[in-house]
Design brief:
Helix content is about 30%, strand content about 25%. It contains three helices and six strands, in the order ααββαββββ.
Length: about 130
């Protein structure tokens, strides 16, 4: 009797393992969800280290500041990469530097974004990107 109960328990565990493995989608997201990107337009205001406005331009992007900066550089015909291998902003046109900050114009520089490349943007906002 004891042997039968242990065998039944082992069989139940094996069957449940098969059920969990069969239901696993391998961590893959639904393709329709992962490929959707929202196209928005933001106004980029580029400033130099002295705080002077170098340029202002409405830029369509996929919703991230990194994409908006890359679209701006492409529209202006700037050669080369804006971001380095660590995804840090290094160059916008003639402006080069290792320390940049970005923020919504109406919120002020005290509310600078933590990340520049991966920052999600709100449509229609004015974004200041400034060399420190």
């Amino acid at each position: 009797m004891k042997f039968t109960k242990i065998l039944a328990l082992i069989l139940a565990v094996c069957m449940m393992s098969v059920v969990f493995v069969a239901c696993d989608n391998g961590g893959k997201e639904d393709e329709s969800e992962s490929t959707k990107t929202e196209s928005i337009t933001v106004t980029l205001i580029i400033k130099d280290a002295d705080g002077k406005t170098v340029d202002t331009m409405d830029v369509p992007c996929n919703g991230t500041l990194g994409d908006a900066i890359e679209m701006y550089c492409a529209a202006k015909g700037y050669e080369g990469e804006c971001f380095d291998a660590n995804d840090l902003l290094t160059t916008i046109g003639e402006l080069n530097g290792s320390t940049w900050k970005a923020y919504y114009e109406d919120e002020g520089s005290n509310n600078a974004f933590d990340s520049i490349k991966n920052q999600t943007l709100q449509a229609g906002k004015k974004v200041v990107v400034s060399l420190k």
